[in-house]
């Protein structure tokens, strides 16, 4: 199902935008970061699978091209609007009801730490219908269960169309279990984020 007036209206009233991605998602994530306006008035949280113990330049690259303040999540960081947060490697990123992040060192989920599922499930409990989640390209099923919990709690859930994803397994898994309320082509995702 493509974007409609209801999706656009719900996007305007959400407080949090969650984006999860893995293999093949870097390009679209980079474009999303570039296109978001500085006065978005939302909290943006990106969870991207990263190699264990591998020093990443992703934050630096994204920050140089972002119109919003961008930072890697630190334990106990308070969530603020008009900021893009990137989940750090080797930790799971959770959101506490008091409005701050906590970092968890428990076992990897779907061989991944950070896990998209962990962050999505955490956000589902706190933000419910005030949240929108987008699941992008990836080579495993991480994010599908978390997205289903988000949808069941009233959040807007979007999967990248598998035909547009470099690795279609992750969005396809979410679609298969009914976690994605919307399945959008890449250009449709950019179009509604600009509204």
From TrEMBL:
Q: Which domain of life is it from?
A: Bacteria
What residues make up the catalytic site?
A: 22, 49, 142
Q: Which GO terms describe its molecular function?
A: protein-glutamate methylesterase activity
Where does the UniProt annotation place the signal sequence? none
Where does the record place a coiled coil? none
InterPro entries in the record: CheB_C, Sig_transdc_resp-reg_Me-estase
The keyword Lipid metabolism is annotated on this UniProt entry: no
Q: Which positions fall inside the CheB-type methylesterase domain?
A: 10-195
Catalysis: reaction(s): [protein]-L-glutamate 5-O-methyl ester + H2O = L-glutamyl-[protein] + methanol + H(+)
Q: What is its EC number?
A: 3.1.1.61
According to UniProt, the name of this protein is: protein-glutamate methylesterase
Q: Which organism is it from?
A: Mucilaginibacter pocheonensis
